[in-house]
Sequence to fold (840 residues):
Amino acid sequence: MARATKNGCNNHGTMRTGQSSVEIQQSILNHLHYTQAKPLPFATRNDWYMATAHSVRDQMLHNWLTTFDIFMSSPREKHKIVSYLSSEFLMGPHLGNNLVNLGLSESVRKALSALGQDLEAILAQEVEPGLGNGGLGRLAACYLESMATLRVPAVGFGIRYEFGIFDQEIHNGWQVEKGDNWLKNGNPWEVRRPDIAYEVKFGGHTEFAHDPEGRLAVRWIPEKVIKGVAYDTPVAGYRSGGVAVLRLWKSEAVASFDFQAFNAGEYYKAVDDKVLSETISKVLYPNDEPGIGKFLRLCQQYFFVSCSLQDMIWFHLSLGRGIESFSESFAIQINDTHPSMGIAELMRLLVDEHHLEWDEAWRITRESFAYTNHTLLSEALEKWPLPLMASVLPRIVEIIFEINRRFLDEVRGLFPEDDQRIARLSLIDETGEKYVRMANLACVGSHAINGVAALHTDLLKKTVLHDFYELFPEKFHNITNGVTPRRWLALSNPELAKLISSKLGEGWLSSIETALAWLQGAAKNTTFQQKWLKVKQANKIALAKVIRERIGIEVDPASLFDVQVKRIHEYKRQHLNVLHIITLYNRIKRDPTADITPRTFIFAGKAAPGYHMAKLIIKLITSVADVVNTDPDVAGRLKVVFFPDFNVTNSQLIVPAADLSEQISVAGKEASGTGNMKLALNGALTIGALDGANIEIREEVGKENFFLFGLEAAEAQSLKSGGYNPRCWYEGNEQLRQAIDQIDAGTFSNGDRQLFRPLVDNLLNRDEYLVLADYQSYIDCQDLVSAAYCDKKKWAEMSILNVAGMGKFSSDRAIREYGEKIWKTTAIIDPTKYVYAGSK
Ligand code: BZD
Fold:
């Protein structure tokens, strides 16, 4: 392989991270030969992709091992690693991002072209690893990339699901789920590490026993033991030489075949055992599924935190440190409560296996863990049925009980007579069937708790985590989410990135937090505005082409692209958007000559397979599309598109083409949102309620550059507590009544009055998310949007100012804040050791 020199240094004694296009060409050919084992004439597109990916990976592994060497030789006090524990990592396709971050796009393009291959076609070959549902998993991916960029030593620990989030197809307007076999063509980015494997216990019982030193200790006699094997994927930082690692665990049988069982004639039992073991990492669970207590998901959670913690302890001890200083080696961030069993597992490892006293183990555990909350929906707070947990993880439940006993003793000391408070704070919900409350475990076992936007943190303190806030106010922090500008601008919108570079010079992608604001100076510049609009137009034309090819709908790139892309959920209110479309449609029907700003409504997003209302909302969107798109009175002025299979790849196509970003969740329900950030970063203007990070986006981009509508969180709350009656709002608003009546009467369902009945009933009788109350304010605001869009110059100015205001929402800023407020980490790699070679 082409490599700098044996010791990884070039002739100047500096580290080398770039390769010339000739070297890359050679490397690709080598991989085609030695890795893919393909003679040139038989090489498929996938072979070329694999060979290219392997060539790029070589460079990343080189940087990674170098990072590791420097880490090991740096002063000990700097030996702190961030362990980001997350049941989901929604990484998106790797190749394009790695090329951007390593500065190799042009040399690889040239190398491939010399080999008769086209980089775009090779990029399109990659099947993205869909190992996440949405915002939470994608946030974990942005944070890994930023940690690599900022050279914070970091490992993302998770599960190597064999099947990620389902692929979505639309059949007759309905969502149909298809299995996501993302590994079918091989995965060139991961390194399997059979030597890094840990055993995890399930089931059985516990007993007291003497350990080898004669101490009395609890022993967990499991019913079953499963092995987790590490698969590592390097994550390149942006032009920094830094590399983070994503370590995902695959479950396997401890012995691949039980020969004893085989010999005893129990061949099938042996096979069954293997199948069961491998089932744990088989499939990602969709969120928003009704019903709790899925046995396999519980196993998944424990499986991956146990492997991860065993791995951390192994590494810590192998640095020659004592177990009591574990929290100096690792800052463990748990991404929502899914990994919160790690708190009890670390206690188990420290007490049962490393023989520490409880108090010492508890100090270490609390110092190590920090918890990020991602939801304000109280029904979404995770809890596990106690009997289920006790049967699957008997020792973990004992430890949770002991944590709870000690914790509640303290609480009783502080609030002696307050039984209700004690019941609310307890890790065990005893109001009916017994449950283990994972958020309570996370709050008690962590030294820091954070929300993901200012409003969210504020509401956490006031509502869902109020009792914990009263108890531990010093633990609470806000860290507003961020997204990486490398994937969400440089990679997905290269022409806009180029235009920004023409103003700001190179290097702004490393210091976006301050650099973007300089665009303000160009916002009124007519030439710049024209170039800005031209880039947007080109992105819209590109998206229109894909929409035509994939969905068969012709859309007008000159129309306003109005985009709502995110999971389908009632609180996100895609149906409010639909009510606006119907309202515009009715205006046209009343007066076909009405002055309507042409719009293309683009929806995308998956609904949880068991969430019927969300699936019905998809059917409503596609049904309205069928009517509106073909009505001759509309004459193409309105088009409605449901773009199937929303994932990172499709998002990178849609986001750069958006004019308007729909962030219309009811105030007080969206924790933060990150799509709002990606869209604004690409020059879309936001129509939004004062929810999640929308509030901060509006502050940063300027109130005059943001379309605000709807109730505030406190107003929404008091409307509901005052006895909200949606029917009054329906009866008092003629346009709204007409729209809802049409849905009910079958106008969009070929006269079928049953189809949307559950949706209409829900809106008229419950309307938990205040769609009807916010309707008029939303329509009025949309009219302002339509008017504003007609003034292209003004629109361009507003769009530029939006991008200029987005510096705060870089994940680099968020990671710096985590480092300062929570992890107390510093970057460890000496940047002078690296020379960025870039593309040649
Ligand atoms: O997390 C989302 C929130 O809804 C967003 O407001 C926020 O911006 C992002 C990132 O902080 N939450 C999720 O995406 N949650 C899940 O995907 C999820 C997954 C499994 C189980 C429960 C929820």
